[in-house]
Amino acid sequence: MRNVIAAVMASTLAFSALSQADEVVTSVNWHPAEDNSLRNGQGHMFDGISLTEHQRQQMRDLMQRARHDRPPVNVSEVEAMHRLVTAEKFDEAAVRAQAEKMAEEQVNRQVEMAKVRNQMYRLLTPEQQAALNENHQQRMEQLRDVARMQQGSNVNLFSSNTRSNQ
After folding, report:
1. Digits of tens for pLDDT over the chain (166 positions)?
2. How far apart are CA 150 and CA 144, in angstroms?
3. Which GO terms describe its molecular function (predicted)?
4. Per-domain residue ranges for the chain?
């Protein structure tokens, strides 16, 4: 069971690292109908916001700099996790240490992306910022609804498991 959990964790971390790396390039979705492929994190942060051509160019420049300045995804860390997951004997301490190292790299990437998004946000007019904040509130309400549904299904699962174990 631990090996399965570690395998899932390793693949999730690897996917997260790769999607975060791709997010720098595509985080500003100028025309939602043209590219709906990115829907993780805040990749859709600027959906529905009408930007001037000058703003678009400034944001492209910011993304280009961010893409150039960021360190590449550390493939050796993903490979190290894979070796730990597929080892003959599971070493929880080593997996935990590797996962923490990978998580720290992920945090650093997210901080850099937040910095770029903040710079992009500052390029918006007050009206555009208000529209962006309104869109964010709508997404947060949708997320709260999903969380409530998940919590409700977890309670139902727990109570049915408790009854079946009695």
Report:
1. 555 455 555 555 544 544 444 443 333 443 333 333 333 344 577 888 899 999 999 999 999 998 888 877 889 999 999 999 999 999 999 999 999 999 999 999 999 999 999 999 999 999 999 999 999 999 999 999 999 998 888 766 666 665 555 5
2. 10
3. unfolded protein binding
4. 52-148
The structure's pTM equals 0.60
DSSP element (H, E) containing 1: none
In order of 20, 65, 76, 87, 89, the CA distances from 81 in angstroms are 18, 30, 9, 10, 14
Architecture of domain 52-148: Up-down Bundle (1.20)
What is the C-alpha separation between 8 and 56, in angstroms, rounded?
38
- Name the region of 41 (left: φ>0; alpha: ψ -120 to 50; beta: rest): left
